[in-house]
Design brief:
The structure is a homodimer of 230-residue chains. The first copy, chain A, is built from 10 helices and 9 strands. With 230 residues, the first copy, chain A, is α/β, with parallel strands linked by helices. The first copy, chain A, has one domain: Rossmann fold (3-Layer(aba) Sandwich).
Chain lengths: 230, 230
């Protein structure tokens, strides 16, 4: 298997499903606990959605977090072990599907918000998913993506490309880290604009210790909305 | 005079008009010479404009650079000495006007591109200008803004606010540096979106020495365009 590929990402996450679930549920990931979890919840709730699709939902914490406020919640992940854990904990409906499956129509219905929280890690799979997303949103729906802040996260030359994964800071039971495809801010904005999204917001949650952005959260609206409302 | 104010910016630039003109015309500013001049010219020409308004044009280099490719060029600056130098060198029409004047209708006509190249340095003046800009663009016109990359430029906490100016790296004949109002990327995007612009692009020209973004160039379209074309 190509060590820098969308397939390898899935392979690695399958090997770390239990460790990951324990880390998320135990609040072991400092940046998430301090800032990025709250930031994505606020971004989603700022839209007052009646329906949310969480793509790459993992063990389902975000669905559970939203469950008191949002009536219709669906979580999707490619890793069966993670979806099994999410289903056990409840809060919404869950489904095993790859990004290619989703792009091919695996998720029924349309949503007020589609959210991808640190889950767009690949290259081709992400690009295929973006093409399919506008059709999965209601007319006034939005796509919300949280990802590491490219300018802060990169200690390599600032260009798109595969990066080696790392479990630095995680427990010794984490193995075979997933590679990830780095995109500059320019490329993220192009991914939204090129697929017909109007970028409404780009939040930069600030890490309380470093005083730098801990992440970036893009909110993009269906182009159609603004054709209608303008 | 408040040392951190829009007025102080104008005051400082008036004192440095000759020094600045000499530095620009002599190619003394490395980042401009290596990367950001070319980047803004390319961003403007990528729109194949028939008319360009350069707001904060200084001594007029960008108008001159565009003059072989763009038939209708207008440059505006608040500093009379700079406009005098721009007029002497030619390439387009030039006008002395403050951002408040421009917001109040000082520039006639509408343009394919309005460009602000490292010229949006203030707070209230910039916000007032943004409100007025959509009406100064043709229906399918765009606003192009180049500014220091906030994430790279800031060694202070990443929050909006006034910053002390500096002429470090410039000659000893530069005096009394202008303060500037720092905006995060989040705030820049909000300035575009909040004034009805659809962000089409966010270019990040890479500095060939540091391999980090030397600047950021936003291109925003009139909302109306997409209402019509969608």
């Amino acid at each position: 298997m190509n060590p820098y590929s969308d397939d390898k990402i899935v392979d690695s996450w399958e090997k770390n499903a239990s460790q990951w679930s324990a880390a998320v549920r135990g609040g072991h990931i400092e940046s998430r606990k301090l800032i990025t979890n709250k930031a994505i919840v606020e971004a989603v709730l700022s839209r007052s959605p009646q329906s949310v699709l969480d793509i790459g939902c993992g063990e389902g914490w975000l669905i559970r977090e939203l469950s008191l406020r949002v009536p219709h919640l669906v979580g999707v992940d490619v890793v069966p072990d993670l979806i099994e854990k999410a289903e056990s904990a409840g809060g919404g409906d869950f489904l095993v599907a790859s990004y290619e499956d989703i792009a091919g129509g695996a998720v029924e219905g349309s949503f007020d918000v589609v959210v991808c929280n640190f889950s767009l890690l690949g290259k081709d799979s992400v690009e295929a998913l973006f093409k399919a997303l506008p059709a999965m949103l209601k007319t006034d729906g939005v796509l919300i993506v949280q990802t590491p802040h490219p300018v802060v996260a990169s200690d390599q030359p600032y260009i798109d490309g595969w990066r080696e994964g790392s479990w630095a800071g995680f427990g010794s039971d984490f193995i075979d880290p997933a590679p990830w495809y780095f995109r500059t801010l320019e490329s993220w904005v192009a991914l939204f604009a090129g697929n017909g999204f109007r970028l409404l917001e780009m939040r930069e949650p600030i890490h309380p210790k470093t005083h730098k952005p801990a992440s970036v959260i893009f909110t993009g609206a269906n182009k159609a909305v603004h054709a209608t409302s303008a």
